[in-house]
Specification:
This is Conserved domain protein. By secondary structure, the protein is an alpha+beta fold. It has 7 helices and 14 strands.
Length: 307
């Protein structure tokens, strides 16, 4: 099974003339769906197979569902589903080590047959999708006490987890700073850090219950960066996120944390703050500074949908 970050070079689908034609045909489709799909680097239209053929493509960050009826993936709007063929899913399980039964959030891409998906607007489902690529974005959440044996140690700084200032469009800005999935329990951190050996980096979100006993509906978490001797500063995860989203987007399931918080305080948090150590110039902790990022517990589909 391949580790997170270890993957062969994958060809992603880019915006072309057919995208513009397709969007004109789907004017009824909400802007949210179009914008998300384009910004996540997957074209809503076609990947050329030959001079005359093309296969429409779909994908992006999704929530994985595993049921008696099979696996499906729900997109960022919280409604539209991607239903893969059993054969393509089995191939990715075998070749890429992708395990949908134990995955919460993933990044997927695939192609679909237009004849089987002629009414996407009403159906809100991409049926019989031939999956081409899938990778889990899940990362570790730790509930512990300071100084405990399982308390994570921060070994390296990050560049930042709020990279929105580097983006030009408002929709891009929302995706490049911490945000919650539509389930309101999965926190997505777009972590920019110096990277050469992708598999050498691990990011853990740590929750210390005793530090959150006062309540006030604000829950505090700490981001810990484990760096297994990756000393290169020639490139970073943000610059490579288009080809390798799994080294930039990290998904944290906070259901256990929220449960602990509500038992201790008697209420659910409305805001989450993440404390992290940052150094935009080097890997030295002694030259780093501590920053805090605040995230409203609100699904990204709620905060961006045009009412």
């Amino acid at each position: 099974m391949k580790k997170r970050g270890e993957c062969s070079i994958t060809q992603f689908f880019y915006l072309n003339l057919r995208t513009l034609i397709f969007i004109r045909k789907m004017k009824q489709l909400k802007f949210l769906m179009v914008a998300f799909t384009l910004l996540m680097g997957v074209s809503l239209t076609s990947c050329l197979n030959s001079d005359n053929d093309y296969a429409p493509s779909v994908g992006g960050l999704v929530k994985v569902s595993d049921s008696m009826f099979g696996n499906s993936f729900t997109m960022l709007d919280g409604v539209t589903k991607i239903s893969p063929t059993a054969a393509s899913l089995a191939t990715l399980e075998s070749n890429m080590g992708f395990k949908p039964s134990s995955t919460n959030i993933a990044y997927v891409t695939g192609t679909y047959d237009e004849t089987l998906n002629s009414n996407l607007i009403e159906d809100k489902e991409y049926k019989s999708v031939n999956l081409l690529w899938a990778v889990s974005l899940d990362a570790k959440v730790e509930i512990t006490e300071r100084g405990a044996e399982n308390d994570s140690v921060n070994k390296a700084p990050v560049i930042d987890i709020d990279n929105s200032s580097q983006m030009g469009y408002e929709m891009e800005k929302k995706l490049h700073k911490p945000w919650f999935f539509y389930d309101k329990t999965t926190l997505i951190l777009p972590i920019n850090y110096f990277v050469y050996k992708a598999g050498a980096h691990k990011f853990t979100l740590v929750y210390y219950p005793e530090e959150n006993a006062d309540g006030n509906k604000t829950l505090k978490l700490y981001l810990k960066h484990y760096d297994a001797d990756d000393k290169s500063t020639n490139t970073n995860s943000l610059n490579n996120s288009g080809a390798y989203p799994q080294i930039y987007y990290y998904a944290y399931d906070l259901r256990g944390v929220f449960s602990q918080y509500s038992k201790m305080t008697g209420e659910m948090p409305t805001t989450v703050t993440v404390e992290y150590v940052t150094n935009a110039n080097s890997l030295k902790l002694e030259d780093a500074e501590t920053k805090t990022c605040e995230v409203e517990v609100k699904g990204i589909n709620e905060s961006t949908t045009d009412k």
